[in-house]
């Protein structure tokens, strides 16, 4: 009886910790894992494109116009095309869920236009006039 009086409190604490650990383990198994992220499920590493996008940049103006074109590729890296003859176009394809398309052009004529299409659908088109006209088109989320 004397031994029981000395160890009953540590035994109760040990029992409570064991029950709590088991409860956390069970709840983590229910709420902490899904089939999409569980190691070995194969779905988390699926690299097949689910919705490929084709983005087309176009710059056009009067025949013979020479322009400098700045644009963002689909990884948002700035690119430049210097002294190109219009009309000019560039087709980019991505499997990213979203992409930002942005193009700026300045030519040596009085009129210049830009156009951005995504999967064949016109998203933005602008025309500017003036001396050495400059134009830009922007699609925030393609």
Mean pLDDT: 85
Report the β-strand fraction as a percent range.
35-45%
* Content-based structural category: alpha+beta
Query: Terminal Cα separation, in Å?
Result: 77 Å
User: Which regions are unreliable across 5 or more consecutive residues at pLDDT < 50?
Assistant: none
Multimeric status of the protein? single chain
Listing every helix as H and every strand as E from the N terminus to the C terminus, the arrangement reads HEEEEEEEE
Give the overall shape: rod-shaped
- DSSP strand tally: 8
Q: Radius of gyration over alpha carbons?
A: 31 Å
What attributes does this structure have?
four-stranded antiparallel beta sheet, 1 helix, 8 strands
Commentary on this structure:
16% of the residues are buried. Helix content is 21%, strand content 42%. By secondary structure, it is of the alpha+beta class. A four-stranded antiparallel β-sheet has the order 4-1-6-7, with no helix packed on it. Strands 3-2-5-8 form a four-stranded antiparallel β-sheet, with no helix packed on it. It has one helix and eight strands. The model has no long low-confidence stretch (mean pLDDT 85).
Summarize the structure.
With 142 residues, the chain is an alpha+beta fold. The chain contains 1 helix and 8 strands, in the order αββββββββ.
């Amino acid at each position: 009886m004397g031994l029981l009086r000395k160890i009953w409190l540590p035994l109760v604490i040990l029992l409570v910790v064991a029950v709590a650990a088991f409860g956390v383990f069970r709840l983590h198994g229910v709420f902490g894992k899904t089939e999409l992220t569980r190691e070995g499920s194969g779905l988390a590493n699926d690299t097949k494109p689910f919705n490929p996008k084709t983005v087309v940049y176009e710059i056009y103006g009067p025949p013979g116009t020479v322009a400098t074109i700045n644009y963002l590729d689909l990884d948002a890296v700035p690119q430049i095309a210097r002294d190109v003859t219009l009309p000019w176009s560039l087709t980019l394809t991505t499997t990213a869920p979203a992409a930002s398309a942005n193009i700026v052009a300045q030519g040596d004529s009085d009129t210049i236009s830009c156009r951005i299409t995504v999967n064949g659908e016109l998203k933005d088109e602008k025309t500017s006039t003036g001396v050495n006209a400059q134009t830009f088109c922007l699609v925030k989320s393609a």
